[in-house]
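Quick log. Single chain, no ligands specified.
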Amino acid sequence: METDKQEQVSKALNNMHTDGLRKHALRALKVWGTKENVPIIAKIMQQEAFVKIDCMDMLEKFKDERAIEPLITTLNEAFREGERAEEILADWWPQAEQPLIKHLHDKEGRIRERTQRILELRKTDQTLLIAQTLEDIKSSNRDVRHSAALWLAKLDVKADLQPLVAIATQPLLTDPNNDIRRNATEMFGKYATKGQADELLKLLDDKDHEKWKAGLTGLIRLGDVRAAERIGRRKEIRGEAFRIFRETGAPAEEVVQKTITHIDVKDWGAGKDLCEILGEIGSLKCVGFLQQVKKKATLAKTPFVGDAAEKAIESIRRRSAGGG
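-> predicted structure:
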């Protein structure tokens, strides 16, 4: 086929975009089509039923970037049509990456799910994904905002990006949507910085379980001893606090010590638990403190606390000496 003749025909086919002619144009495009026809092929794909796969095959052959966005909209198709669009886009790299990122939290469920699957498959850099997510989390569309918050809550955010996430999630602590607010509260507890510690303290003082848990998590993680007085005063949060102490490890050592000072020496159950926690996470720096606890427990005739303090000292010394 002569090149100039094919160009003339392909240009003429671009005019066959009316409802009655599109399907007829498709048959001719299979024979005469060139990159010149990508826009009309994409339009036929989007507007006509039963020919979408044929259109996608041609778009895949021409590899013209004008086809990427129409293919992304086709991800919303059920069955084989959506699957075929997903296959083509996953193979069209890196050209399709940036357009797909913009649909990471698309309001349409199938587009969103397939886009996320492609980006995960192609191992898109987390920095790019979080940048888009932090933009979407401010969207006026509730579905987009909800998707962004949920996706981010499930992500293991890299350390250098955590402060950005904390800043973005703080305004969502009062979001009217329950799911968004819950996910934002959890993330704020995980990633808040020392500069946001006062906000964490406000959460800890709230009676709502999700809020005080997030505040507790953040303050213990940051080693903020202001949490200790609340733990000592509010028995209902102690179980969660003790779990977080163990989970946090060494950074929680000072808060644990401070908590012991806020618990009545006769409250032997809590005192014993806290001594055991120090035995698990404490360093040699807290041995002197534990010796004082043991002395006070003996005077108060609460031997369970004294014994726990003694065992904690032995455990710390053994661990420090390399004995496990």
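Residues 105 and 144 are 5 Å apart (CA to CA).
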